[in-house]
Amino acid sequence: MAEAFVGTWNLKESKNFDDYMKALGVGFATRQVGSMTKPTTIISLEGDVITLKTVSTFKTTEINFKLGEEFDETTADDRKVKSLVTVDGGKMVHVQKWDGKETTLVREVDGNSLTLTLTLGDVVCTRHYTKGE
């Protein structure tokens, strides 16, 4: 199930990311840097453990998890969240919960393209990636 997501994914296009960061409560200066950064996401699988590493000039984050098992995550903007990742119908669904809030990150692969849809309340952001070498 998760094998389709394995690979190196380079950000090509982003829509509404500043509004999404604003909804998260990210400060102005960090939003400016975040909006200009073009991260690479590396997804790997070893046994039943998935590693999702996001690399940019701004910050590198890495999480390791098993599908369907809740885990603690510190996000790129330093939120401490409870996360749960599942794969359903070809979509990798990542739910983060903190302080009574919830955001959903949905990844979908279509050939050499990955679309990440970020949702927080009524704010929706889409980020399009292409598969690297």
- Radius of gyration from the alpha-carbon trace, in angstroms: 14 Å
CATH C-level class is: Mainly Beta
CATH topology: Lipocalin
The major sheet is characterized as:
10 strands, antiparallel
- The CATH level-2 architecture is identified as Beta Barrel
Number of domains: 1
Number of helices: 2
Helix-strand category: mainly beta
Task: Specify the helix fraction band.
Answer: 10-25%
Question: Would you tell me the overall average pLDDT?
Answer: 95
Protein name: Fatty acid binding protein 3, muscle and heart
InterPro entries: Calycin (IPR012674), Fatty_acid-bd (IPR000463), ILBP (IPR031259), Lipocln_cytosolic_FA-bd_dom (IPR000566)
GO molecular function, one term: lipid binding
Family: Belongs to the calycin superfamily. Fatty-acid binding protein (FABP) family.
Description:
The chain has a single domain (2-131), classed as Calycin beta-barrel core domain (Lipocalin). Helix content is 13%, strand content 58%. It is mainly β. Helix 1 (17-24) packs antiparallel against helix 2 (28-36). It is built from two helices and ten strands; from the N terminus they run βααβββββββββ. A ten-stranded antiparallel beta sheet has the order 4-3-2-1-10-9-8-7-6-5. The chain is globular, with a radius of gyration of 14 Å. The mean pLDDT is 95.
What does the secondary structure layout of this molecule look like, with pairings?
Layout: E1 7-15, H1 17-24, H2 28-36, E2 40-46, E3 49-55, E4 60-65, E5 71-74, E6 80-88, E7 91-98, E8 101-110, E9 113-120, E10 123-131
Antiparallel strand pairs: 1-2, 1-10, 2-3, 3-4, 5-6, 6-7, 7-8, 8-9, 9-10
Helix pairs in contact: 1-2
